């Protein structure tokens, strides 16, 4: 499994300067600016905006984060269909940081995608082996007429 770098999460402090959480700042420079903490964030409740994302990430990430027993609520919305923005809201139980929950959710989703890719490639390789054998009808269906 590849090493995963933590995601840098930026929060606006209201005076047009970004505040960077030092626990989550690393080197994914092109991905970093795509995640923003929206105003009104607290340690146990925050809304994040992801640029250039849609329902594909939103629904998968919401599902993964909701499986975390420390999460009270997680939901997402697309503010407008013509904008490539995804808003994700996370609320946790007392004492659990939404930033660590988001980081864990992103890591868990990435790990799940790696497993799915691995399983798919194994199945594809097995299917290719079967097709190389003298198989009179390699397709799972028959043409009619």
UniProtKB/TrEMBL annotation:
A Pfam short name? RNA_pol_L_2
The annotated region (Disordered) lies at 126-145
Recall the GO molecular function terms of this protein's record: DNA binding; DNA-directed RNA polymerase activity; protein dimerization activity
Q: Where in the cell is it found?
A: Nucleus
Check the record and name the SUPFAM superfamilies matching this protein: RBP11-like subunits of RNA polymerase
Question: Any idea which UniProt keywords this protein has?
Answer: DNA-directed RNA polymerase, Nucleus, Transcription
InterPro entries in the cross-refs: RBP11-like, RBP11-like_dimer, RNA_pol_Rpb11_13-16kDa_CS, RNAP_AC19, Rpo11-like
Q: Where in this chain does the record put each DNA-directed RNA polymerase RBP11-like dimerisation domain?
A: 46-118
This protein's major location comes to: nucleus
Specify the superkingdom: Eukaryota
**In Gene Ontology terms, what is a biological process of this protein?**
transcription elongation by RNA polymerase I
**Annotated coiled-coil segments of the chain:** none
Q: Quote the cellular component terms of the Gene Ontology held in the record.
A: nuclear DNA-directed RNA polymerase complex; RNA polymerase I complex; RNA polymerase III complex
Q: Which family does it belong to?
A: Belongs to the archaeal Rpo11/eukaryotic RPB11/RPC19 RNA polymerase subunit family.
- Listed name of the protein: DNA-directed RNA polymerases I and III subunit RPAC2
The organism named in the record is Lophiostoma macrostomum CBS 122681
Organism taxonomic ancestry: Eukaryota, Fungi, Dikarya, Ascomycota, Pezizomycotina
């Amino acid at each position: 499994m590849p090493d995963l770098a933590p995601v840098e999460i930026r929060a606006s402090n209201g005076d047009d300067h970004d505040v960077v959480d030092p626990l989550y700042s690393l080197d994914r420079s092109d991905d970093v600016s795509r995640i923003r903490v929206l105003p009104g964030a607290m340690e146990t409740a925050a809304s994040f905006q992801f640029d250039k994302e849609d329902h594909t990430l939103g629904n998968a990430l919401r599902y993964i984060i909701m499986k975390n027993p420390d999460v009270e609520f997680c939901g997402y919305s697309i503010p407008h269909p013509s904008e490539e923005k995804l808003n994700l809201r996370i609320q946790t139980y007392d004492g659990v940081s939404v930033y660590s929950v988001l980081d864990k959710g992103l890591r868990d989703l990435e790990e799940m995608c790696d497993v799915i890719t691995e399983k798919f490639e194994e199945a594809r390789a097995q299917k290719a082996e079967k097709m190389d054998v003298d198989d009179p009808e390699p397709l799972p269906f028959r043409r009619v007429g």
